[in-house]
Amino acid sequence: MFQIVIVGSGFYGIALANRLQKLNANITLIANSERTIFLPSTIRLPFNKDASRVEVLVKDVLNSNVELIVDQVLNIDEERIELKSNHSIAYDRLVIATGAEWDDPICPDKFLQYGIETYANELSAKIEKARNIVIVGGGIVGVEVAGEIAYHCPKKTVTLIHSRDKILNGEVIEKARDSVQSQLLNLGVKLILGKKAEIKGDSVSIDGSQIPCDHLIKATGPRANPPPSSIKGLLNEQREIVISATFQTVSTPKIYAIGDVTNYPERGLVSRHSWLATICHNLQEDVNGTSNYRSIKWHKRNFKANVGISVGPEGGAGQIVLPFGICINAPKFLIVKSKSATLFCGRFKSLYSYY
Ligand SMILES: Cc1cc2nc3c(=O)[nH]c(=O)nc-3n(C[C@H](O)[C@H](O)[C@H](O)COP(=O)(O)OP(=O)(O)OC[C@H]3O[C@@H](n4cnc5c(N)ncnc54)[C@H](O)[C@@H]3O)c2cc1C
Predict the structure, then answer these.
(1) Domain-located, residue 10
(2) From which domain of life does this come (predicted)?
(3) Residue of the nearest CA to atom 29 in ligand 1?
């Protein structure tokens, strides 16, 4: 039977495996851990320390028709995936969905390696001990982390350094950026804008002057996390997997990739319905032996999508995209209700399986 293998057991790997079970093919998911973490829920972990609300056993959210293999990938070539346990798996089509690497405090690998509770306790002890916490990078993740710390630890000095003159980046409309900026200031966050931080070990300086810091958090963006592979041309200089709008890799069209590991300019889960429908349709074409592939729109960087940004559990801002690309400010109460209040903790499991 036609063999489709997915490597990566995060959001896209699991959601795709569940959706593909309708195809007349064997579906295998290779995971590097028995557990998986829902990233948007992780930033509150040092404060609520409730692992069960951010992680889940892969087998508990995976359809029983999908074969699950927990192992380490040693190499991928055009025909097979070599695994640490000494065996290799041949594939007709491969999908890579291994996500990205993040710095503390969002380290999926550390969560999985040390156990999420140990890691959460470690982070929480570091925050408790520190008087001056500095976050470098004022994109969405930096803002959300600053908001959480300032909300839960009002006595600490929290400083957020961002290279632009206003918080966040061009993919967020001005009104939402203004709202986030004033909410952070209200929580007592010190903002240093329009400056590049120089980081040496654990110390941070700006224009040669040292910023008081006894806990540094780098929120300067994730890096793609591709699995080991001997395929030439699979990655670009940033080590992202280079795909076309069909999700097929440019180097090897029988290999697909989706999510944070790719060079597709949009990140996140907002467009998951159309992405999953498109990749699923294209794999169906492969199973049928036809090639009537569908494509997603290839956005430019900074294009505007629906966004919700938490600023602590009681704050937030965002934007809603209307027909014809009109983008309006989202009311704060809507973002608090839909995201900030819970950060999806405990209620993300259904997201893997409703397709
Ligand atoms: C703090 C934070 C808040 C966010 N908030 C939002 C939000 O509100 N809305 C939104 O749309 N997006 C949000 N995102 C982004 C969103 O979570 C990611 O874009 C999404 O999780 C990407 O899914 P993925 O499947 O590509 O990667 P991941 O979900 O990271 O999954 C990758 C998986 O692959 C596994 N893996 C890695 N290497 C291997 C290997 N060699 N073999 C097997 N498995 C491997 C990893 O362990 C991991 O389980 C947020 C991200 C963060 C960090």
Answers:
(1) yes
(2) Eukaryota
(3) 10
Nearest atom, ligand 1, residue 227 CA: 41
Concatenate the DSSP letters of all residues of 266-297 into one string. Answer: --SSTTHHHHHHHHHHHHHHHHHT--------
Residue 8 and residue 98 share a domain = yes
Query: Rounded to the nearest whole angstrom, what is the distance from the C-alpha of residue 107 to the centroid of ligand 1?
Result: 10
Domain co-membership, 211 together with 253: no
Q: Could you report the per-residue pLDDT of 291-309, keeping only the tens digit for each? A: 999 999 988 777 888 999 9
Cβ partners under 8 Å of residue 165, min gap 6: 193, 194
Alpha carbon of 207 to ligand 1 centroid (Å) = 34
Report which protein residue has its CA nearest ligand 1's atom 12: 268
Do 145 and 259 lie in one domain? The reply is no
Shared domain check, 227 and 192: no
Task: Render pLDDT for 239-254 as a digit per residue (tens, 0 to 9).
Answer: 999 999 999 999 999 9
Question: Is the distance from the beta carbon of residue 43 to the nearest atom of ligand 1 less than 6 Å?
Answer: yes
**334 CA from centroid of ligand 1 (Å):** 24
Asked whether the beta carbons of 175 and 329 are under 8 A apart, the reply is yes
Q: Is residue 227 part of a domain?
A: yes
Quick check: CB of 227 below 6 Å from ligand 1? yes
Is residue 202 very low, low, confident or very high in pLDDT (cuts 50, 70, 90)?
Answer: confident
Read off the CATH number of the domain in which 134 is found: 3.50.50.60
